[in-house]
């Protein structure tokens, strides 16, 4: 039984669905951009330990991703497969975010344990909201181009969340710091504010889609979903890894998010110590970056529909690689920073606009082969590789900061430290992103191949003869 919609959604419905992505944008970017900075500069945690805290928590979340995705695929709620997870997951996500940015007064060892436990809770509940929300998009339409439009709307709104989290955070922290009398409480109040926003936007999404969310296919008469177990999740995981177009997306995802883990964590250090920007100038540069992402997100969706998702992904990964090489090679200054923003905006927007749309497309391969719709599993696997990449990147960030002799208590950093910080920011992400370029070139599920596959899948589902000529590389 198919539960996907074939009629056009329209802009209003796409935006209603996309509202939840604001919470995703805040949740990811506030953590990636400021949590290591908060632990080192506010909570007084050793840089290498701070990176390890992030590594442990995000790896835990990466392990739970496929489990939550599979639970969502098997959910038998009358309210749908996805919205119950989104609604309640976002509430606990908000609570854990509020607790995460507290400079708790504990001995050093106990403080580290506290941040590990809160991070584990945070990432578990973030997954509980994000994975089902993204998977819901695949159920709203099976049209190749409209999926790109849907994800363009979601990514645009996710960048609004990014704008709030990255560009607004330092100003909001300072605002609350003046009210409460300390920078530490400023961070705590900012965490509480973002928690409230996240809970609101995800629940607004659930309320808005209630009239056009597909019926839960797991409630069909006579249908019994496969019982959830670790072995069944692991088996499904291995099966998905054999889908060649999908495993290329996983490689791209790992590489991009490794670069995000390094780049986002080091960016504030780079602007502060290498470019010598003030907090206001840093906030301004982050604002410009995010505003440009809003523009490139729309353009990425338009160009992908015009020229093809594969072609756009290749170009985006080339630009992503170039932005970090620019930082490594050119001298620190406004020209370098703006040139970086130009190429970064194209690469980042391309990845986030297309990755889930392309994942939706590849899930059709498994549906054709087995009759199952593994949208939640595929989305969670993207999440697994995303978080594994970013966790390793953030872990390496902590090690790099220690290795180059960074001292958070020093007013001035040594010249060698500053030079090595700039090189690390540029070279490490560029090398790994070059692998993403190769994976994008090898991706085989084009628009034409998808049309052939969709026709064959529908014919097979209806019990009529179907053809697979031209799909050899895909299948």
UniProtKB/TrEMBL annotation:
The chain crosses the membrane at residues 21-42, 48-64, 85-106, 112-136, 156-177, 189-209, 249-272, 284-305, 312-331, 337-356, 377-404, 424-445. It holds the Pfam family MFS_2. Keywords: Membrane, Transmembrane, Transmembrane helix, Transport. Residues 13-447 form the Major facilitator superfamily (MFS) profile domain. GO terms for biological process: carbohydrate transport. It is a multi-pass membrane protein. GO terms for molecular function: symporter activity. Signal peptide: none annotated. Its main location: membrane. GO terms for cellular component: plasma membrane. It is found in: Cell membrane. InterPro entries: MFS_2, MFS_dom, MFS_trans_sf. PANTHER family: MAJOR FACILITATOR SUPERFAMILY (MFS) PROFILE DOMAIN-CONTAINING PROTEIN (PTHR11328:SF24), MAJOR FACILITATOR SUPERFAMILY DOMAIN-CONTAINING PROTEIN (PTHR11328). This is Putative symporter YjmB. It comes from Clostridium symbiosum. The gene is yjmB.
């Amino acid at each position: 039984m198919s539960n996907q919609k074939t009629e056009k959604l329209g802009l209003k419905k796409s935006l209603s669905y996309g509202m939840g992505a604001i919470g995703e944008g805040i949740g990811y970017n506030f953590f990636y951009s400021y949590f290591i900075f908060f632990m080192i500069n506010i909570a007084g945690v050793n840089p290498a330990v701070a990176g390890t805290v992030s590594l442990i928590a995000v790896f835990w979340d990466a392990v739970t991703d496929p489990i939550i995705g599979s639970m969502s695929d098997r959910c038998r709620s009358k309210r749908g497969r996805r919205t119950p997870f989104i609604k309640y997951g976002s509430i606990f996500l908000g609570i854990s975010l509020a607790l995460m940015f507290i400079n708790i007064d504990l001995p050093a060892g106990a403080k580290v344990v506290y941040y590990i436990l809160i991070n584990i809770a945070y990432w578990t509940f973030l997954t509980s909201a994000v994975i089902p929300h993204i998977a819901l998009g695949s159920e709203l339409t099976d049209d190749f181009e409209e999926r790109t439009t849907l994800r363009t709307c979601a990514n645009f709104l996710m960048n609004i969340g990014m704008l709030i989290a990255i560009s607004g955070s330092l100003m909001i922290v300072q605002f609350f710091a003046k009210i409460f009398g300390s920078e530490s409480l400023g961070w705590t109040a900012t965490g509480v504010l973002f928690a409230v926003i996240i809970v609101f936007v995800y629940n607004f999404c659930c309320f808005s889609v209630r009239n056009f969310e597909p019926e839960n296919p797991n409630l069909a008469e006579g249908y019994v979903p496969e019982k959830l177990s670790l072995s069944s999740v692991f088996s499904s995981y291995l099966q998905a890894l054999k889908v060649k177009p999908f495993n290329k997306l996983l490689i791209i995802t790992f590489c991009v998010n490794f670069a995000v883990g390094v780049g986002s964590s080091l960016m504030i250090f780079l602007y502060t110590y290498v470019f010598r920007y003030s907090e206001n100038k840093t906030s301004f540069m982050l604002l410009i970056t995010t505003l440009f992402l809003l523009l490139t997100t729309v353009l990425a969706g338009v160009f992908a529909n015009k020229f093809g998702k594969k072609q756009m992904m290749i170009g985006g990964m080339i630009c992503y690689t170039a932005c970090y090489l620019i930082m490594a090679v050119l001298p620190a200054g406004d020209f370098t920073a703006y040139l970086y923003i130009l190429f970064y905006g194209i690469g980042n927007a391309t990845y986030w606009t297309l990755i889930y749309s392309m994942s939706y497309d590849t899930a059709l391969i498994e549906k054709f082969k087995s009759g199952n719709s593994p949208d939640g599993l595929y989305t969670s696997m993207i999440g697994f590789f995303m978080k594994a990449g970013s966790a390793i990147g953030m872990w390496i960030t902590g090690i790099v900061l220690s290795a180059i002799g960074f001292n958070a208590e020093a007013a001035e950093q040594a010249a060698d430290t500053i030079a090595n910080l700039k090189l690390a920011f540029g070279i490490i992400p560029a090398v790994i992103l070059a692998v993403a370029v190769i994976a994008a070139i090898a991706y085989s599920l084009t628009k034409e191949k998808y049309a052939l596959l969709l026709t064959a899948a529908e014919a097979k589902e209806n019990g009529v003869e179907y053809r697979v000529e031209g799909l050899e590389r895909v299948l």
